[in-house]
C-alpha cells in the first residue's frame, strides 16, 4: 500500500480499496456495492457481510471519503484525471486497478487475483 500515491484522489481511492480487500478479504462485489451509509465508525457493512475496520482501513477510508467529499451513495467512484467524480466504479475498473497495483508490487501471478471474485 505504501507504493500507492496518496497525494491524489485516485491514489486515496485506490489505497482504500486495496486496504479493505487486503485486510478484510472483501471482493469486487463488496467494493462496487459499498455505500457511504454502510460505513460507520466501528463497522463496515459489505455485500458479503461486515467487519470492524482495522486502523489501516479506517484511516484509508476516512482519508478517501474526506478528500472526495462523498456524502451519500457509492463510496468508490470512477475518477478521470483532473476531473470531478463522475460515477460508481464497475467491477472491471476495480479489477484493472487492483491488477495494476499488484503488478507494480511485483506480483504477476493470477493467484493474486483469485480473491477478487469471492
Helical element count? 4
Q: Domains counted in the coordinates: how many?
A: 1
Written as H for each helix and E for each strand, in order along the chain, the element string is HHEEHEEH
Principal-axes shape call: globular
Strand content: 5-15%
Main beta sheet strand tally, sense and closure = 2 strands, antiparallel
Low-confidence stretches: 111-115
The rounded Rg comes to: 13 Å
Helix/strand-derived category reads: alpha+beta
- Measured between the Cα atoms of the first and last residue, the distance is 21 Å
- Averaging pLDDT over every residue, what do you get? 84
Helical percentage: 40-55%
What's the total count of β strands? 4
What topology, given as strand order, has the largest sheet? 1-2
Task: Kindly describe this structure.
- With 118 residues, the protein is α+β, with helices and mostly antiparallel strands.
- The protein has one domain.
- The protein is built from 4 helices and 4 strands.
- The strands form 2 sheets. The protein has a two-stranded antiparallel ribbon with strand order 1-2.
- A hairpin with a 5-residue loop joins strand 3 and strand 4.
- Helix 1 packs antiparallel against helix 3.
- The protein is globular and about 35 Å long.
- The two termini are 21 Å apart.
- About 4% of the residues have low confidence.
Strand-helix topology:
Elements: H1 9-24, H2 28-33, E1 44-46, E2 49-51, H3 55-68, E3 77-79, E4 85-88, H4 91-104
Antiparallel strand pairs: 1-2, 3-4
